[in-house]
# Entry
Amino acid sequence: MQKREEHMSSVLIKNESRLGLKLVAPAVGIIGLLVIYPILFNIYLSFFDVQLNGTKTFVGMENYTDLLGNPRYYHSIGVSVIYLIGTVIGTTVLGLAAAILMNQEFRFRNLARGLILLPYFAPVISVVFGWQFIFDPVNGIYNHVVVDVLHLTDTRENLIGNPDSALFVVIVFDIWKHFPIAYLLFLAKLQSVPKDLYEAAAIDGQNAWGRFWHVTLPELRFVIATVVLLRIIWNLNRFEDVYLLAPNVETLPIFTYYQAFAGIVDQGVAAAISVIQLLVLVGLIWLYVRKVLKW
Amino acid sequence: MMNKRSTTQSVILYALVLALVIFCVFPFLQILSTSLKHPIDWGNPSLIPRVLHLDAYKELLGLMPAKEVDVPASVQRLLDNPALSAEKKQMLLDKFSAGGDVFPFGRYMLNTFVISFVTGICSTFLASLAAYAIARLRFPAQSLMANGVLFVYMVGGVLLMVPLYQMSVNVGLASSAAGTIFSLFLIYLIQTLPVAMYMLGNYFRTIPFSLEEAAMMDGCSRVEAFWRIIMPLSKPMLFTVFIYCFVIAWNEYLFASVFLKQYQDFQTLPLALQTLFTSKNAIWDRIMAASMLTLLPVVICFMLANKHLSGGLTDGGVKG
# Structure
């Protein structure tokens, strides 16, 4: 009898694992074919001279040595670093401030909470034109305010046309577009902070700033780490938001895109850039999975 | 404890909230305002148009009356010639009317809608199967797959554009319009599958196992329990995930630009709008009206899905 039950349960386990494999097969198959294989294929391609029509010639390490001797590559790394520092600090600080603000009680709170999510939801392609118009040298409100109202300068400037100032606009745009996701993460955590912690701090004589410093921040420590790490991971690969607003701001992904699909096409070099970038990314993701998800 | 606020504190609070809301909403108001302004009004910094100007919308939606074609007298004489076939006459006329001026917005919208809709459906379906297995069943390499999904999701499209493009060239998909669109569909599928699996997996875990157990006691098989119990219970989340995938495809620019550049008839809105903007006949009112019309379906979608979305987004490392 007992033997029979054991047999039954082993059949059940076998059936369950067979069903499980069957159910994950399509999704995992597609991901394997179109993500894992391309990652490996990319490494292979980085040792070839690759044309758009698919012809390949083996060049060994040449793509890598070319790349490491190319000042444009270092320039784009520099631009990416400034972009990352600006956007990561900006979205985290604004997201946290917005979460604290929206955690207060006030009238029309639900409306305000909904409205500040709009930038995150809206398609990049639509909102970039709004931003282009704001900074348009002829019609834009920015030049109107700076030149005609505040008289800070006499000349109308094309902020997006100049790569240096465009980087600044791109950073502000990214903060505007992505702080809502940081805000959502912070708000979710804030709502779960026990009220008596604040009451205890108030009894201890802490003012609002002290309560923020001694209660809110320590409680949010892990979420802040999550937000910062996720911002770095996502923004390292960010393409559309930068390219569509200001194609002259050459962050790493945009440099890669130009190498691969514009001007003198050199897809092998583009593959080499991606390989190096992937190594950095894997390190960051490993950090995220090990340190943040475990918390 | 903090319910009591002084008047000053209230004023500061409302001022800060207002400032934040204006910061978030202003670009949208700018788009709406410019789309409704007459060209002579563009330099006017006020958001309220002096005269309401709906031509841009009418033109994009094909509501403009067909423009009278200016035909030179010499050509008019040719057209009046009864010996010329009607077909030839039309060709002549087309030469004068088609200045590349018409932007087939409806066509682009339909293209975008179809590929986004198909992506959303397929991705949600495949992800629900896989997510159920990962959340509920025991099978070999399960945790590897669960972690792998997260890893794969964070590998951005930029890193895969060269190999994916080369793969589609190598298998010959890139040489025909149908093959190109199929490649693009597959790419949208992998861009949405991991996040869909992640969101659905987290959701399935919140459904009590006892419900399936009861169904199986009543003689349902595992698969039947999944179809009859889990799927109906997850409808709101399935809808949310579908919307999320739909919007990812609706917004995608990078791969559309790589794959669809030479297939103008099949372009999606992001690519077409960018082309319109960089082309010579780029006109702010048309650009803004097109932006408004591209934005609207997405905003409506999110309003429909918002309730579950905010929760679903914060549960995982969702792209932002």
In short: Chain A is about 75% helix and 0% strand. Chain A has a mean pLDDT of 89. The beta strands of chain A are 48-50, 56-58. The radius of gyration of chain A is 25 Å.
